[in-house]
Amino acid sequence: MAMKMNQPNSRTARPRQGFTLVSMIVAIVLLTVGIMALANANTNTIKYQAMAQNRTNAVAIARAYLEEVRSRDPWTIVSESVERVGPDGIADSNGGFLRSMEVNEQRNNLLRLELTVDFPRAEQPVRLTTYQYRGSGLSGAP
């Protein structure tokens, strides 16, 4: 009987080798969740970067067009309907940007110009407002 006491029990003495199936499944699930989170973050980054680029282009289109309008004779400036333009601001029937301008006479010699540029995936369009003074002595003056 002394010999039996000195022999290790086969169930408790066997060293653990490797991982159990449950621990492997848990590890794979955690790895999958992490990879999916990174993929989602990458997708959102690309989406928001494209939106920021489109907004930047829309602001550039609006500023350039307002400068062009402000260089015109103030007595000939009128509202303009929606026009499709490309990212360079030039009229293009396939362009992704929609530009329009509304002109309101604030006073006898003062115009309010509001330029709107709508762009792809926009939550709201870009709106720039400026005022144009129409002094006397210009063509079309009363």
Describe the model.
The protein is of the alpha+beta class and 142 residues long. It has helices spanning 2-6, 10-13, 21-70; strands at 80-85, 97-107, 110-118, 126-133. The protein has one domain (21-133). Helices cover 42% and strands 24% of the residues. It has a four-stranded antiparallel sheet with strand order 1-2-3-4, with helices on one face. The protein is rod-shaped.
Compact description:
With 142 residues, the protein is α+β, with helices and mostly antiparallel strands.
- What is the ordering of alpha helices and beta strands? HHHEEEE
Basic shape: rod-shaped
Low-confidence stretches: none
Mean pLDDT, rounded to whole units? Answer: 86
Q: How is the main sheet built?
A: 4 strands, antiparallel
The number of E-state strands comes to 4
Radius of gyration, in Å, reads 34 Å
Helix proportion range = 40-55%
The portion of residues forming beta strands comes to 15-25%
CA(first)-CA(last) distance: 127 Å
Question: Strand order across the biggest sheet?
Answer: 1-2-3-4
- Our count of helices gives 3
How many domains? The number is 1
Structural class assignment: alpha+beta
List the helices and strands and how they pair.
Blueprint lengths: L1 H5 L3 H4 L7 H50 L9 E6 L11 E11 L2 E9 L7 E8 L9
Antiparallel strand pairs: 1-2, 2-3, 3-4
